[in-house]
Amino acid sequence: MSRLTAWLPRLVARVPAPVHAKLLAAFLAIVILLITVGAVGLGVLADVNRRADELVRLQRKIAAYRQLQHDTTSQLYTVSSALLVPDDRALDGTLRQLNQFGYDLDRLQFVARDEVELLGRVRMDYEQFIKVVTQAVELIRAGKAAQGREVQLTQAGPLADRLERLTNELVNKAEADMVASIDTSHEAYLSSRLVVIGFAIGSIALALVLGHAISWSLIGPVHQMEARLEQIATGDFTQAVRVPNRDELGALAAKDGSDAKLVGVLACHCGSLADGEKAVQPIKAFGPPIVDQMGPISYCTQNGLLDAALPKGALNYWKAHFLTDLRDDAIATLVACFEKCTSPMTQIVLEHFHGAASRVPVTDTACAMRITGFNVVLISQWSDRRESDRHIAWCRETYGALRPYLGSFRYVNYLAEDEVGDPVAAAYGLNYQRLRALKAKYDPENFFHINANITPLHA
Fold it and tell me: Residue 457's Cα: distance from chain center in Å?
């Protein structure tokens, strides 16, 4: 989950759009979510309304069928009573009621859309019942009462029983449909409630995720730039603000000065303060510097001036060599290569060897660099191991570009493990063979070899 919450702001930050466009898109997305939740809610309400109408229709159908059941029973009772006591007026009334009841059956067709076949059977049996009753009435009027009652018992009676069963079946079916509809409506209500709740929770979650992504894509870079400005305020120009934003914040972070190529001059004068100020005056007068900290300091402080530029835990790859001379084309090559350096922590250091150290004869000490000249040190420095190949490649390419200007001397402190040839011999120059002889005398087995190794002379 933490990876997702960290990944989303970076994804939003990489969208190549202005901040106001991202905010507008976020607001529109939230509006769409609200509209979606509203549409789902309206759809659920429409379904509930439809099911309510269906229940009302079923209730009306049940009422109509019960009325049909009641009327059928009443008609059958009336017919039975009329045939038992023959009377012309009673018989005529019975026939009229039977015909009128047939019209009521016709009207039920508009209600009984799902029971058309069953109502058709009721209609057919009722028409047959009318015929049989009409026949029985005619026989009774003709003075054949016994035959009329016989027709009633043998034909009208079974039809009456069947009509009663059919009307009961109509009522039972309608009631069963209503019970099923109620169950379905309840299940639909539960499902609809889950759908609405699900959409609501999903919309809230999406809105929160979207808000988190948008807000942290803006707040994160601001915090990074704030921390970087605090570092700059303390004089640390070695770090860079790395924000993925492709918007105004990304453009602002790129102007923090961390990617700017700076030139620094570190001077050391050992002597009187007046002589020192006179010596550094040309440097201090050369243009307006970003920072000027030249002044009287202790020798220990002087030795630690570069410590902040070489932080503990940083990854390093170095190359170093003395130049034959600091010519204009060599300077142009150094500037061109430094423009392409791959890390804000990377440095190109030019050490000016001169003064008292150069006035000592070469053979007086083991150190052979008793010359006046410039040692170039390529310090490729970075913090992410995944970028090692890129930064090492820059250092090697820069060293290769400087080969036409390199001399024969090396500084032993800067020798790397992947040097070609015998760089130790180049570092000690004329003194190398004497040092090998001393090595053979005091360490003939080369026990102390984990260094810029001088091999014993006999090896």
Answer: 66
Q: How far is it, in rounded angstroms, from Cα 390 to Cα 398? A: 12
pLDDT tens track for 64-86: 767 666 666 666 666 666 665 56
pLDDT for res 253: 64
**Whole-angstrom distance, CA of residue 200 vs CA of residue 31:** 13
133, with CB counted inside 10 A (0-12, 13-18, 19+), is buried
Core vs surface per residue 135-148: b (16+ CB within 10 A) or e: bbbebbeeeeeeeb
Closest CA to 74 of 152, 164, 205: 164
Pairwise CA distance, residues 336 & 401, whole Å? 10
| Domains contained in the chain, CATH given | 2-217 (1.20.120.1730), 306-442 (3.40.462.20)
Alpha-carbon separation of residue 344 from 5, 55, 278 (angstroms): 29, 76, 33
The whole-model pTM stands at: 0.50
Q: Render pLDDT for 140-172 as a digit per residue (tens, 0 to 9).
A: 767 776 776 776 677 767 777 777 777 777 777
CA gap 454, 58 in Å, rounded: 107
* Phi-psi group of 355: left, alpha or beta (phi > 0 → left; psi -120 to 50 → alpha; rest → beta): left
HEC string for the chain: CHHHHHHHHHHHHHCCCCHHHHHHHHHHHHHHHHHHHHHHHHHHHHHHHHHHHHHHHHHHHHHHHHHHHHHHHHHHHHHHHHHHCCCHHHHHHHHHHHHHHHHHHHHHCCCCCCCHHHHHHHHHHHHHHHHHHHHHHHHHHCCCHHHHHHHHHHHHHHHHHHHHHHHHHHHHHHHHHHHHHHHHHHHHHHHHHHHHHHHHHHHHHHHHHHHHHHHHHHHHHHHHHHHHHHHHHCCCCCCCCCCCCCCHHHHHHCCCCCCCCCCCCCCCCCCCHHHHHHHHHHHHCCCCCCCCCCCCCCHHHHHCCCHHHCCCCCEEEEEEEEECCCCHHHHHHHHHHHHCCCCCCCEEEEEEECHHHHHCCHHHCCCCCCCCEEEEEEEEEECCHHHHHHHHHHHHHHHHHCHHHECCCCCHHHCCCCCCCCHHHHHHHHHHHHHHHHHHHHCCCCCCCCCCCCCCCCC
Neighbouring CB atoms inside 10 A of 295's CB total: 10
From residue 392, give the alpha-carbon distance in Å to each of 28, 67, 263, 318, 349. Answer: 47, 98, 22, 9, 17
pLDDT given for residue 60 in this prediction: 73
Give the residue from 425, 418, 426 showing the smallest Cα distance to 439. Answer: 425
